[in-house]
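Entry for the shared binder. Reason: the reviewer on the internal report wants the predicted structure included alongside the sequence.
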Amino acid sequence: MAETENTTQETQPAQPTQPTQPKVGMKPKWLIDTERIEKQKDQGIFVQVAWKSTNTVDCEPIGLTQEMDHSEYPISIERPTGYWAPKMDWNAVPHWLETANIQQGMLLEELKKQVTELSKTTETVQTQQKNQNVESAQSSQLMMMVTKQLGIMNTKINDLADKIAPAKPTNVTTPTTPAEPTQPTTATQPTTPATEGGAQ
């Protein structure tokens, strides 16, 4: 029976969740300040909570010591419920406006400026790196050219040395086969008279 109950509970569709108030960390500043002043009102320090809104102050909760029955510049007694960054529009019929988009636009512009600055910094760094790489590549090419030229010069020096070497013999060669004795010619040999049979 317990198994059937568990199965039934699991198969029932989930109830739609109702929107809840944002957590304290997600509350707008004006609401956090309002709740603080409302606690002071509950303690008897103030008789009413109101909101100041001017050209320089968008929405600042304040505690009143005398009760007001209508809004009057710069104090509104109408709570700006549902607004994240409210500002009172005092023209014609006073009413709250949402300035979050304006603030987001300003924030967006500030972020754009930061991105532009970062882009410029990145471009500068990349340019410096390219210059260093170009210099490094040029140095490498120069070294390769110098090395190549040295190799060519060494080859030319060796060739030149080989051409000069026969004019100044450094090795004396000795013949490996004995020279044949030369026979004196008859014209150069002294003639002696032939004697037959001894002295006369």
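Summary line for the report: DSSP finds three helices and five strands in the chain.
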